[in-house]
Amino acid sequence: MFSNFFFSFQSIPHHAFRPLKGRFQRKLVKIVINEPNSAGHSVRDLGSYAFYYLMNLKNIDLSLNSIEKIHKHAFSFRWESTETLNINLAGNNLSENSIETAAFTEMQRPVNLVLGEGINGNPELK
Q1: CA 65 – CA 93 distance, rounded (Å)
Q2: Sign for the pseudo-dihedral over CA of 29, 114, 65, 53
Q3: CA–CA distance, 60 with 104 (Å, rounded to integer)
Q4: Distance (Å, rounded) from C-alpha 25 to C-alpha 112?
């Protein structure tokens, strides 16, 4: 039987998706964290190389969180790919000081980046 559950964390840490027991997570293609729980907990911080080893990742949806800090190399990847990576960061607390230099370097793939859409924007981001 499958049931819904909520867990709370406020950051995706540096090197969050490391190989498990020496094996890479090849089947992980989508990460969606965009429903803050009723206690108001949501992602606030993205660490360096957070998704680095996820070679087949195609979608990262972190919209509607409270992201205030994106560290350098947060979206760097170890391997090249021709697959487009879709990243949605709409509806966060991003400002011009939130994103460290080089946060989006070494991505090694085409990227579709959404920083805001409709009423879900980042009004402090210039």
Answers
A1: 8
A2: positive
A3: 13
A4: 22
How far apart CA 34 and CA 63 sit, in angstroms, is 5
pLDDT tens track, the chain, 126 positions:
444 444 556 899 999 988 888 888 888 999 998 866 545 668 999 999 999 999 999 999 999 998 999 999 999 999 999 999 999 999 998 998 999 999 999 999 999 999 987 778 888 887
CA distance 15 to 78: 11
Report the distance separating Cα 120 and Cα 115, nearest Å.
9
Cα–Cα distances in angstroms (integers) from residue 41 to residues 37, 54, 105, 126, in the given order? 6, 25, 29, 26
**pTM, 2 dp:** 0.86
As beta bridge partners, residue 60 has 31, 87
Kindly state the helix (H) or strand (E) to which residue 69 belongs, with its residue range: strand 69-70
Stretch (H or E) spanning 11:
strand 11-12
